[in-house]
Design brief:
The protein is α+β, with helices and mostly antiparallel strands. The chain contains 15 helices and 28 strands. The strands form seven sheets. The chain has a 15-stranded antiparallel β-sheet that branches. About 55% of the residues are buried. This is Glycoside hydrolase family 15 protein. Keywords: Hydrolase. GO terms for molecular function: hydrolase activity.
Amino acid sequence: MRIEDYALVGDMHTAALVGRNGSVDWLCLPRFDSGACFAALLGGHRAGHWLLAPAAGGTCAGRRYRDGTLVLETTWDVPGGCARVLDFMPPRQEAPDVVRIVEGVRGRVEMRTELLLRFDYGEVVPWTRERGGELAVIAGPNAAWLQSPVPLTQESRPRAATASFTVAAGERVPFVLTWQESWRSRPHRLEAAEELANTERMWREWLGRCRYRGEYAEAVSGSLVTLKALTYAPTGGIVAAPTTSLPELIGGSRNWDYRYSWLRDAAFTLQALIGAGYSEEATAWRDWLLRAVAGDPADLQIMYTIDGGRRMPERTLDRLPGYEGSRPVRVGNAAARQFQLDVYGEVIDCLYQARQAGLGPEEDAWDLQRAFMDYLEGAWREPGNGLWEVRGPRRPFVHAKVLAWVAADRMVASVERQGLDGPVGRWRALREEIHQDVCAHGYDPGRNTFTQFYGSRGLDAALLLIPRLGFLPLDDPRLAGTVDAVCRELTEDGFVLRYRPEADGVDRLPGGEGVFVPCSFWLAHALALLGRRSRARALFERLLSLRNDVGLLAEEYDPGHRRQVGNFPQAYSHVSIVNTAEALTAAAPSA
């Protein structure tokens, strides 16, 4: 199946992908970055899946999320009747649960289920036994139970549990899959109908707090639900995506593990949450950030685990063929140890925004910012790997230098506007020095555009962020020139590439990638800020049309094959929907 053929269900600890064929093909338990027990997405059905669909097979007639919820409703029309399947994960209580309820809508429908649990990304085949009228599965530290009124048959090959049953109009047949550490006792059994009502109520109450009232309310609401689903509730950390190794180009090697939290997303994620009225979630994200980055400023990482950990060693799972043959399949992310100058500015900007929004107490945050600024004063001239974690030589990336300016600017503003104490004169001087340096070395006057790095002729989509960072007034012709250059040189079919890997030898990895969805939203946002509202709106609405049937977007899009690529769903794509919708709502109409 295509990446966009999947929908998401989750419990704010982990998430599952459910295909249009009724199969759960991806689920990591007990949390986002745990080993997968359903890994068919990357390894085929023998790597683990859970099918629940009409016995006749095929794809569904339609599906949707129930209004204001993350409860997936899939409808199947077959000869003789109609049935629907409700898929959801109740908010985490004692243990993670996946609930699937089959409802008869019309006539009679013969259904089939096949459960193939394979722990550790498909490698571990568990023991399966019937105990107390339910299925019990165990292997090493993992145990699971499948609760259902339908008797299941254990098949020796491929060691799956299967069942066939008929559902008639008005009938409900529930299935509840529960996971627990194998040394613990079985968690209490859930009542599927009760959990359905509780889950729907929780999501609707949460979404009811949204204060966005613009014309793109449907898109904003759906994106906020997705962001909430990608939040690790115990810590407030937000994963970039719940998947690993979905390729940026089908068959290519740019396949990365995105089940971590990136600092590059910090300020814009906070902006999206605050703008939509979710101060509690914004505070939790801010607090995760403070815990994660605490320590020596020289040791700051570009990403952390969802609990703020620093270790995510990268390895490949060579036994898995990868999504549509896209190898390698990677677990962990070696880019965590790269040096990216921009993260200091992103953290400082995030904490400044949090203070401006009046978020709750933040002990020692100002001391942390001052420590970061002390380090940055001596390090801002250093080359780095850049926002896109290029696996090539370090460069003086323009975006990184602009973020160093942002750091100095927000420190000055913290003293002048928020009454905090610090050497503001020194920071003003540094701010001016960085500004002059960027304009002298990172700008190409012949083409009227900022460039990817000092001395480069290449462009970088991150330059589209300059208009909203306050580096130059919005009427400065260099901003319009940069936006025009990106449109002219860094787009494909009207969508924005991150950069051109072949330009200036910046990237030493083989193969290309699709257009980057968040960057295309950045272009729409920049156009709105520059007063080109009609163009911004047209691009924004075209980008919204790339969402799948349940409103989800991956990291990238392949215009040639008209399909989504990259990890899915991508938090930053949905953050960009919220922020761009806000910008379009706030922008004055163009003449």
